[in-house]
Design a protein that fits this description.
The protein contains 3 helices and 4 strands. By secondary structure, the protein is an alpha+beta fold. The termini are far apart.
Length: 136
């Protein structure tokens, strides 16, 4: 009688196979998928103001003036990064001109030029040119 459970257990395992490296080997038709990394942000900071150039001369003066005053209320020596962002480098001259215009608008708020830093960057995912103003 003692052999009956042992015999029954041995019969239960006859359809099993041993686990080895071949058990977990991928099928030959399965190709390894390399995940594509997400595109890196051109600047991880959140802009104080983003000016979209969907029209030739967007009206941004009031918004920019209020944002500059609010930033200076928090820190009287705040510095600004004015970054022109465009899809590619084909129109860098226009991008720099837009950034310079925004810099002059900030200077009209009595911010010295040495606290404003200009830059140009590209973002291939961009649909229209932008000027982004960041605080340092």
């Amino acid at each position: 009688m003692r052999l009956a459970p042992l015999l029954l257990a041995l019969l239960a395992f006859t359809g099993c196979t041993l686990i080895d490296r071949r058990t977990f080997a991928p099928a030959p038709e399965a190709k390894a998928q390399v995940p594509t990394p997400p595109p890196a942000a051109i600047d991880p900071r959140t802009p104080l103001v983003t000016i979209e150039y969907t029209v030739a001369a967007p009206d941004y003066q009031d918004l920019l003036n209020a944002a500059v005053r609010a930033a200076e209320a928090r820190d009287a020596q705040v510095q600004f990064d004015v970054i022109s962002v465009m899809k590619d480098t084909s129109d860098v001259t226009s991008g720099m001109q837009r950034a310079t215009d925004v810099m002059r608008a900030i200077m009209r708020n009595r911010v010295p030029a040495d606290r404003i830093h200009l830059g140009v960057r590209t973002d291939p995912l961009l649909t229209s040119p932008q000027v982004r103003v960041y605080v340092r």
